Amino acid sequence: MSEFSDCYYLVDAPSDDAIALAKKIRRYTLIFPKTGRYVPFLVDGAWNAGQCIDVVIENNPGILLHYSYATDYGLWLNIYERSNKSCTIDIQRRSPSENDWHRILSELERLNLIGASQVPELQTIFEDVSKESIVDLSNIRNRLGEILGVMFLKWFGCADLSIQTQKNLAQRFPDATFVLKSLRGKADKEIEPVPNEWCPYPGLPAFMYLPVPDGQVDETLLERHVCHWQKT
User: Fold this and answer.
1) In sequence order, which residues have a C-beta less than 8 Å from that of residue 176 and are 6 or more positions away?
2) Does 135 lie in the same domain as 232?
3) Are residues 116 and 93 both part of a single domain?
4) Which terminus of the chain has fewer CB atoms gathered within 10 Å of its CB, N or C?
5) pLDDT of 106-149, one tens digit each?
6) Residue 158 and residue 69 share a domain
7) How far apart are CA 220 and CA 188, in angstroms?
8) Which domain of life does the protein's organism represent (predicted)?
9) DSSP per residue over the chain, as a string?
């Protein structure tokens, strides 16, 4: 059986930052206890194993790692500084891994994710995965984790939030925090427009339920409009 795992990690941030992020993006989220410098968390809405969820990156409050792992394919580590991608480590299982190692080392040092003493071991990993042979991904994952000081999640990922019940997850991860449990499985689903004071008829396109603009900004109408759509 092949393993597919992924996880987000906020760096040098309190768990409250992950909770705030989940509430801001309105996604069902599972947050693990902080370990070392990292707050691991999973976000509902990744329908493909290892998929990076755009809304998480767009609202990232600091330094964020997104890790994904597939036994038969590879290991990927995307590093973001707020909404900007800093660098990517892409380790392929069956072919030489092509990475901009100079940029990766530079960015990891700039973001204080590694120190000078860890550079030689990271360079050894780069050399190992650049050879034309089958890579021992599990070994590389463990070595990368030791260098970065992060415990990479195994045999679990964001896609599992839509598959497993909150009860089962709570039994498996009793110390985890669940945010917006009522939104489980609802990520990226379009809100169904309902009849309102501007359009009392059901089944019409969404724009029919918005107030008709008259060229002037009516603050009261705008506030009512915003409140209506927040509630629905």
Assistant:
1) 30, 31, 32, 33, 169, 170
2) no
3) yes
4) N
5) 999 999 999 999 999 999 999 888 876 788 999 999 999 999 99
6) yes
7) 29
8) Bacteria
9) ---EEEEEEEES--HHHHHHHHHHHT--EEEPPPBTTEEEEEES---STTPPPHHHHHT--SEEEEEEEETTTEEEEEEEETTEEEEEEEEESSS-----HHHHHHHHHHTTSS-GGGHHHHHHHHHHHTSSS---HHHHHHHHHHHHT-----S--GGGGGTS-HHHHHHH-TT-EEE-GGGTT-TTPPPPP--BTTB--SSS-GGGGSPPP-SS--HHHHHHHHHHHHH-
Q: How many CB atoms lie within 10 A of CB 135?
A: 21
Tell me: pLDDT of 225 over 70: no
My answer on whether 228 and 163 are in the same domain is: no
Separation of alpha carbons 213 and 165, rounded Å: 44
Same-domain pairing of 114 and 152: yes
Do both 198 and 176 map to the same domain?
A: no
pLDDT tens digits for range 158-178: 988 988 998 999 999 999 999
